[in-house]
Amino acid sequence: MDWNGMMESILVLTHTDESSALTKASLEAVTAGRELAARLGASLCIGILSADPASGASALATAGVRLLAVTGYAFGQARYATDAAACEALCRATYATIVLAPECSRIARVAAGVAHRLSGVIDTHITSLGGSNTLEATRWFYRQRIEGTVTRESRPWFLLLDAGTQIAFAGETAAVNPELIDVPLPAVRTTVTGFRSPESDVQTIRPDARLLFVAGAGWTKKQPDGQTHASEAGNLIIDFIHRTGASLGSSKSLVDQGSEGNSVLPFLTHMNQIGQTGATPRHPKGLSTCCHGEEPHVVGWRFIGERRAISLDSNCGWTRGKADVVYIADAFKVIAKVNELLERK
Ligand SMILES: Cc1cc2nc3c(=O)[nH]c(=O)nc-3n(C[C@H](O)[C@H](O)[C@H](O)COP(=O)(O)OP(=O)(O)OC[C@H]3O[C@@H](n4cnc5c(N)ncnc54)[C@H](O)[C@@H]3O)c2cc1C
Question: Does the C-beta of 181 come closer than 6 Å to ligand 1?
Fold first, then answer.
């Protein structure tokens, strides 16, 4: 199909979670789609992938747009063949020239393949959509050091939106029937046998948490009494994480200690690492403890709104302009006191 010269037609791809509700990242994509459609004067459709789309569709009742769904047991499961077929069918049914979707594991796995099937183009990790008459998509390059703006002539243009960059759509719920798109079941090689996820109190990486708590190598270093206190450190940190629901990050030095055979906090892995060679999460607030605040670590704090740090070193990187507030104090004592106050509360 020749897409050139067509008025933009926007499709937002969404999916439901195990509870049949639309995921938060999907609702963020809906917000982005509505704003973009209003700005470009374009048509807007929302496609839902779900075994049971009723609840997801009802959450979009006040969005005032055409709702479509691919449904059925097989299409409720995350699997390349079925998800790609469903997304492709939704794109074809809506003649979408711009496809917005959440950058979640399920959609990210199939989006490039679907774009290819439609002879389209794709950009990932989009953080904002700007432009007045045209679409300008923003993303970060080179480990979040350079922010770039992308425009493209080719259509359909798929844009995957990073989670946490938009406000999730929230409207009154009401019963609404989405148009059901019939998709022939493709050849399926993968059988989904179920979900296995850690208990919520074992899972320490919480992208939606209001607070990021970072543990640095200082927790396992010799303290003023000349001894290390790794198990006490572990108890203090995990107690704080459980009481506050914060997400747990780490410096590279601390997680690296495990591979060197040194005492290390047992619940930390490289998945917790924040920084240049780690993650760059988005949280409104961050609290760094026993961490020096070196640049390769702090670059991972780019999207943390308000930064605070606790360090014994009054000359550490945080005090040199990298944190909003620095407490020059012993983190063992501070966190013990905070946990005590939280317990009383
Ligand atoms: C190419 C490259 C990539 C890198 N990528 C990353 C990355 O992705 N992430 C990352 O984190 N690092 C990264 N690093 C390493 C980074 O440069 C630092 O070495 C690392 O972040 C230091 O970790 P730290 O601050 O926990 O440890 P340290 O530098 O050892 O600092 C420990 C701090 O704890 C304080 N302290 C000790 N006891 C207490 C106490 N009781 N109370 C309060 N404070 C206390 C000390 O004063 C000290 O400031 C990278 C380095 C390179 C070269």
Answer: no
